[in-house]
Amino acid sequence: MADERYLVLARKWRPQTFEDVIGQEHITRTLQNAITSGRVGHAFLFIGSRGIGKTTTARILSKALNCSSASGPTPTPCGACSNCASIAAGNNIDVIEIDGASNNSVDNVREIREHVRMVPSGSRYKIYIIDEVHQLSTGAFNALLKTLEEPPPHAIFILATTEASKIPATIVSRCQRYDFRRVPLGRIQDLLRRILVAEGVTCSDEALHAIARSADGGMRDAESILDQLLSYCGETITFQDVFDVLGLVDWRVLHELCDAVLSQDIAKQLTIVEDVVASGKDLSQFVEDILRYFRNLLVCKTADAKKLLALPDDEIQSMQAHDQSDPAGGAIRGVVEGF
Fold first, then answer.
1. Of 220, 230, 100, which is closest to residue 157 (Cα–Cα)?
2. What is the pTM of this model?
3. Across the chain, where does the E strand assignment appear?
4. Domain residue extents for the chain
5. I need a labelling partner for 140 at 20 to 30 A (CA). Which of 60, 276, 283, 337 fits?
């Protein structure tokens, strides 16, 4: 048995500085400039989909404001002092992380209001990071309003949410709003490649692209998928491994479905769908795979597929084969009309 507990990639590779945060330069640069100019607000609202760096950025901002190796807030926290280390570990008593989903009542917010008046124990600021803040009740939001508008000078609030529409306008108006973006596909692939090199694992470009595409812009999701594949594959990851682990439908099934649509063979179409259901595949994912397949088919027909599609050569050749008998574009029209 291993002496140490395994640390998943999402935690092992969690960014520790603003420069490490991928795909959010418009936010990290603004925060660094605010710290340098002494214009740090008292309340921040971080908005964006899951796994793109909201809580991570909140922790880095906490380190930047409380780094004890600097004489004041710094845009480049050292990461080695007691404050930086304890914030990174999640056990700093002056940086309180709260789950809004399970602490969403008026009483929970009243407790925050009582404790926020106390000065920090060993830091410059007492920082409250409230994750999934949209799940607070209406009463809890109302209880938070006054404190959020005029907190004590030593208190800073960082609210994070995946659903901006559920945040009351009265809360939004009291915060500096930062909208996080989905991480571009290429940036995800670059980081995954660095991780694979560090872990001593080989992976084909097609497999790497499939992992990044499945993550749908979420860096944490990409790292979690890669973790699964490392457990499944060991030292070599192939394109087929990604399909097996993620439960994706084999491209050959999509080829057959496309042929059945073009030939108007309804019985064949129903048989293929029934087989997909019987194999336990996710039907919503199956629909997405179909749409992606048709999009790839269009690319094969109108552009240089090898440049735009990170797919194995045999897959591209199979899609291009649909065009050989109908170069005028009837294949694509037939598929679209069939659906």
1. 100
2. 0.84
3. 43-47, 95-99, 126-131, 155-161, 176-179, 202-203, 236-237
4. 9-179, 185-246, 251-338
5. 60
The CATH H-level (homologous superfamily) assignment of domain 9-179 is P-loop containing nucleotide triphosphate hydrolases (3.40.50.300)
Question: For residue 315, which amino acid is it?
Answer: E
> What's the rounded Cα separation, in Å, for the pair 26 and 17?
15
CB atoms within 10 A of CB 203: 25
Per-residue confidence of the chain (339 residues) as pLDDT tens digits?
445 678 899 999 999 999 999 999 999 999 999 999 999 999 999 999 999 999 999 999 999 999 999 999 999 999 999 999 999 999 999 999 999 999 999 999 999 999 999 999 989 999 999 999 999 999 999 999 989 988 999 999 999 999 999 999 999 999 999 999 999 888 999 999 999 999 999 998 888 988 988 888 999 999 999 999 999 988 899 988 988 888 778 778 888 888 888 888 899 999 999 998 888 888 888 888 888 888 888 888 778 777 777 666 777 777 777 655 455 455 555 554 444
In this structure, whether the domain defined by 185-246 belongs to CATH 3.10.105.10 is answered with no
102: exposed, middle or buried (C-beta count within 10 Å: 0-12, 13-18, 19+)?
exposed
